[in-house]
Amino acid sequence: MATKKTPKKAPKKTKRSADAHDVTEVVRLLEKKASKKTKDGMARYGIPSDNAFGIPVGVLKQLAKGLGRNHALAEALWKTGHYEARMLATFVDEPQRVTALQMERWCKDFDNWAICDTACFALFDRTPHAFKKVPAWAKSNEEFVKRAAFALLASLTVHAKDATDGDFLRCLPLVEKAAHDPRNFVKKSVNWALRSVGKRSQALNSAAIAVGERLAAQPEPAPRWVGKDALRELRSSSVQRRLSAAKKSH
Fold first, then answer.
1. Torsion over CA of 24, 27, 33 and 36, rounded to 10 degrees?
2. What is the C-alpha to C-alpha distance for residues 115 and 83, in angstroms, rounded to an integer?
3. DSSP-derived 3-state class of residue 221
4. Which of 80, 90, 21, 19 lies closest to 53, judged by CA?
5. CB-CB neighbours of 189 under 10 Å
6. What is the Cα–Cα distance from 209 to 193, expressed in whole angstroms?
7. Nearest 5°: phi and psi at 121?
8. 63 near 25, Cβ under 8 Å?
9. Is residue 53 within 8 Å of 83, Cβ to Cβ?
């Protein structure tokens, strides 16, 4: 009796990972959208263009919508080193899958204010590790790591809906200390954070104004500018009206 041969199983198709497959296509797409005019204009805003294609942020955001959220793709895009690929990575990554270690790696790669601020405002402030990174990065001597601390704090005032006033009050001493750093990109982010914290609630407004007054009275130019500039907005009638109305509505 002839034995029945067992049919050979077809070899399993290996699924190409999202980062190995998509990143090449996405980078090709970025190259097609490159604009020499946009690239040449980046220098006016203090953005290095050596590793850039020259693509407006609005175009990158539209592209991100089409791609959807993809953590593996985001990591692969970041590794390319291209400016626009990294910007795109911040728009497509999945906040809940971002690890504290990844935030450290990316932060150390920051070499301009635009990628720093975008990563903080579009991604980092939505992760579970956000508040812990503020004091950690505020201690850094690296200009863009330190900027990230306060860009992140400013971003949290907008997107951390469940955060308490206490969460932000604990960060104000960091703001006051960093205001003495004269470096332009640090100084501006500290000012941004102070103004943002002070616009979140009436209690925080009073606390931020107190910090602003102390800074405005300092003899050094950096803290004095941070304090005076912040006070102009924090004391403005528009901010005071909005905070008063918000308090009444609650």
1. -130
2. 8
3. helix
4. 80
5. 29
6. 13
7. -80, -30
8. no
9. yes
Question: Is the distance from CB of 111 to CB of 143 less than 8 angstroms?
Answer: no
pTM for the predicted model, two decimal places: 0.89
Residue 233: how many other CB atoms lie within 10 Å: 17
- Tell me the per-residue pLDDT of 94-134, one tens digit each, with 9 for 90 and over: 999 999 999 999 999 999 999 999 999 999 999 999 999 99
Neighbours of 240 (CB within 10 A): 13
User: Is 86 in the same domain as 48?
Assistant: yes
**Which of helix, strand or coil describes residue 109?**
helix
48 lies in the same domain as 159? no
Residue 7 lies in a domain: no
On whether residue 12 sits in a domain, the answer given is: no
Is residue 250 very low, low, confident or very high in pLDDT (cuts 50, 70, 90)? low
